[in-house]
Amino acid sequence: MKVATYNVNGVNGRLDVLLRWLTEAEPDVVVLQELKAPDAKFPVREIEKAGYGAVWHGQKSWNGVAMLARGSEPLLTRKGLPGEHEDEQSRYIEAVIDGIVIGGLYLPNGNPYPGPKFDYKLRWFQRLHSYAAELLDLEVPVILAGDYNVMPTDLDVYKPERWKDDALFRTEVREAFRALVGQGWTDAVRALHPDERIYTFWDYFRNAYGRDAGLRLDHILLSNDLADRLVKAEVDKHVRGWEHTSDHAPVWIELAEKPVRKRRK
After folding, report:
1. Cα→Cα distances 265→3, 7, 140, 182, 212, Å
2. Which end of the chain is more exposed for a tag (fewer CB within 10 A), N or C?
3. Is 34 assigned to a binding site?
4. What is the pLDDT of residue 44?
5. Does 149 appear as a known binding residue?
6. How many domains does the chain have?
């Protein structure tokens, strides 16, 4: 089973890029972020023609998340993260696909720091922390995938000294991510590439992609039973080099049908 996350940075404006990548990569499940489209403008017909069922949680101009399943319809279980009823930002969607609970998320950017946007980011992280613990308590296979807007370590950021006061790299944010993983989740990319400098985002400015001046912002977290089935985790970096592409590249994992790794304690 191939599961991917991709911040598409405008699902309608970059639909040609998304469809091209779906045809090339053939993922079984895709979590999308930054749709930048209300529900009525989600390109469901084009997605279905490409062979995917879809559920989505849109928002005009900003945010928006979706989940695609190849050859089937995702079973929608949740729109929106619990814990703050007045929060109207479309940042979380959840569905069951092939017996796996998959949460797709777009965590707030938080800039500028300090300020209300950063405070909102920390609150959102705490809500995610609380809800993720509930998902683990279900003792079912769970994936939490998306754009977390955090570089967990120095290895995940080009020239980390330049980012120490950015909301993507603040100590509070990295500690929140570590606390989340510490519940019992596996960071799939780091599990298979513990010492490699891997990026998933390159800014449009200053030839960041050409210089490989990137950030690792997009993560796939696995519950223990799925971590035992993890066989591959990669970034389709070349997609970032396509014309009119997103500033993010797709991140994907492959899961075996049966456990192939020793269960983590």
Report:
1. 24, 32, 17, 12, 36
2. C
3. yes
4. 98
5. yes
6. 1
Establish whether 88 is an annotated binding residue.
no
Query: What radius of gyration do the chain's Cα atoms show?
Result: 17
Dist. CA 163–CA 241, nearest whole Å: 24
What are 219-232's pLDDT values in tens digits?
999 999 999 999 99
Looking at per-residue pLDDT, the higher value among 261 and 105 belongs to: 105
Residues 6 or more apart whose CB falls under 8 angstroms from that of 189 comprise 198, 216, 219, 220, 233, 235, 251, 253
**262 occurs within a structural domain:** no
Query: Residue 265 has what pLDDT?
Result: 47
Q: Indicate if the alpha-carbon torsion angle 49, 50, 53, 54 is positive or negative.
A: negative
Q: Taking 90 as the threshold, does the pLDDT of residue 60 lie above it?
A: yes
pLDDT number for residue 262: 64
Q: Establish whether 156 is an annotated binding residue.
A: no
Mean pLDDT of 85-110: 97
Residues with catalytic annotation? Answer: 106, 147, 248
- Among 26-30, 40-44, 258-262, the least confident range: 258-262
**What pTM, to 2 d.p., does this model score?**
0.97
Return the CATH number at 226: 3.60.10.10
- Residue 32, domain member (yes or no): yes
Give domain status of residue 260, yes or no. no
Question: How many degrees, rounded to 5, is the angle at CA 75 between CA 19 and CA 131?
Answer: 105
The parent domain of residue 183 ranges over: 2-255
